């Protein structure tokens, strides 16, 4: 038996359809959602991600606002661009594309973002709300990748309540923040957070009902460490050159043989990536709905 697919592309299409309706309602009420992006430098990967976000926006009727700065931009210029986005009423939510160039104090930049416009859900105020509000709605953006993972699982009819979720990786955008979402009363999972300092990762993985692999280490989750019937989410994005075609391709954290043991697996690409993008759009629509409600 091979695992069923958690199809992020199909789910993101559904979410975008739902958002298209909400955007039309907002526009009719006089509020147009607008996503801002701040991109510094010319890294082709980052350029590609940002372009993709604006394509997604066009699909659902969200307006796009871009701030593009050269690689050499000084800290002050980047901070000035953040202030412009904070002050621009057309921009209801925005992201600072990461990573920023070397020598830039990223945390200082991120802390300048107006928490009400934080579309990534990574501002300290919004992460703090996630810590403080266990039982009630957050009323600010959720981190996109964690929110997308939970939505992808639940949309496929899998309940996380009472399940043991083992997270591999302690990065800010996924590993550290997903536990805060998973342990909210509305989701009710039990979480183990593992990382490079963990002794005997295998024994943790073997007890997992759900594995979230977000270490950025290709193949760190192997078939022999996965319980039969587990749900496995592959968040890893490493790049390698395909020896056959010579082209660059994405490799995840999950060994392909895991598909023979797990009950459900998220493909990569086609799993978590599209969900992350859909959640960004959802955050922007949410911010615009709060703008309307505050009128
Ligand atoms: N402030 C900020 N917010 C982010 O959300 C953010 C960021 N910075 N920096 C970079 C990472 C990376 N990231 C991805 C989003 C979608 C796909 C995605 O849709 N991937 C497709 C295709 C991948 C491919 O084939 O190259 C897929 O998984 O199917 C991938 C990666 C968001 N990031």
UniProtKB/TrEMBL annotation:
Q: Which GO terms describe its molecular function?
A: methenyltetrahydrofolate cyclohydrolase activity; methylenetetrahydrofolate dehydrogenase (NADP+) activity
Q: Which residues bind NADP(+)?
A: 169-171, 237
Point out the signal peptide segment. none
Parts forming coiled coils: none
EC number annotated for this UniProt entry: 1.5.1.5, 3.5.4.9
- Which keywords appear in this protein's UniProt record, sorted alphabetically? Amino-acid biosynthesis, Histidine biosynthesis, Hydrolase, Methionine biosynthesis, Multifunctional enzyme, NADP, One-carbon metabolism, Oxidoreductase, Purine biosynthesis
Q: Which GO terms describe its biological process?
A: L-histidine biosynthetic process; methionine biosynthetic process; purine nucleotide biosynthetic process; tetrahydrofolate interconversion
Which regions span the lipid bilayer? none
Read off the InterPro entries from this record.
Answer: Aminoacid_DH-like_N_sf, NAD(P)-bd_dom_sf, THF_DH/CycHdrlase, THF_DH/CycHdrlase_cat_dom, THF_DH/CycHdrlase_NAD-bd_dom
Similarity field: Belongs to the tetrahydrofolate dehydrogenase/cyclohydrolase family.
In Swiss-Prot or TrEMBL terms, this protein is called Bifunctional protein FolD
Could you tell me which species this protein originates from? Sanguibacter inulinus
Q: What is the lineage of its organism?
A: Bacteria, Bacillati, Actinomycetota, Actinomycetes, Micrococcales
